[in-house]
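Hi P.,

Sorry for the delay on this. The queue was packed all week, but I finally got your sequence through. Input first:
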Amino acid sequence: MTNEAVLVLRTADPIDWIVGNTHPVPKGTVMMISGSSNIGRTAISGQGVAPAFAGIAHREKIANDGRTRLGLFRDGIFRMKFSGTAVAGEAVVISGCNTVGAWRGSASYSGSHVGIALETAADTETKEVWVGK
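Then the structure:
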């Protein structure tokens, strides 16, 4: 993948989530909550329709390595790539694969809240986001 988030300031420990064994997950991947399992706290990578934010991968997960658990950060300050513009202090949501954008009140992004922009960002810029706020 590309555009992975980079941890700047760790404010909490990662939370254990269930992930599939067959797909690789690079460190810093923005993960979504998966509703496809009867098991709770299951996360997937990639971009869906109005995905619900699960967290950011704490470490790399190699495909077919037998591991089905991965720690995800749900709080902290990260450098993230923006899709569209955002003003410092504005709420940001998942806007693409490993990208965030300003929320601006769109009901279609319900559940995809990531945090707040700590810097004003232009389209395609990488800026700091306080995840979980």
